[in-house]
Amino acid sequence: MVQKTGKRARGRPRAYDPDQALARAMDTFWIGGYSGTSLDALSASTGMQRPSLYGAFGDKRSLYLEALERYTDESIASMRETLDFESSLRDGLATLYHSAISFYAPRNADPRGCFLIGTAAVEAMSDPGIRNRLRKALRRLDRVFEDRFRQAQATGELDRQADPAALAKMASAVLHTLALRSRAGDSRPSLRAIAEHGVQMICGARSRR
User: Looking at the predicted structure, is the pLDDT value of residue 37 above 50?
Assistant: First the structure.
């Protein structure tokens, strides 16, 4: 936290907080989608005039891509932390999915689902650059699961005949389903049931050694 000293700082102070502005822009894209979000809406949400937005982030597409990259990076970091190698795979997956439900469909708020799936999947059809970003982000998500599954295989939590890469795509598919169904308004008990069946499906083939 920056404490006030009563002295005026030298030089011209920055008129905005870039992290805060990017977070607010992400929220705006999240609600309206890329195509449905106007520059006026972005200006209003960030508190920045258009010239300032252009100067800080470039055009609307550049701002969206930066928000997409930030969301992906934060999601990957959160997944790695939740799928802690020191806890059991079953517990880690259950925690990850239940945390995702709370994030995608928070109590007393409109469900928003996943920023990546909810916005980039729509634009991928017409924008090759966004399609490429989406594909790379999905592969990164898969790799997090795959790394954890390979470790679980080495410790006997998963059968040696299991395919970690295939299971990773299945685990990602459960996550994407939770995102889509939460945005469609599925109830939290329904989402939790999907998560529990997903964990059972993935962790069912455990070694009996």
Answer: yes
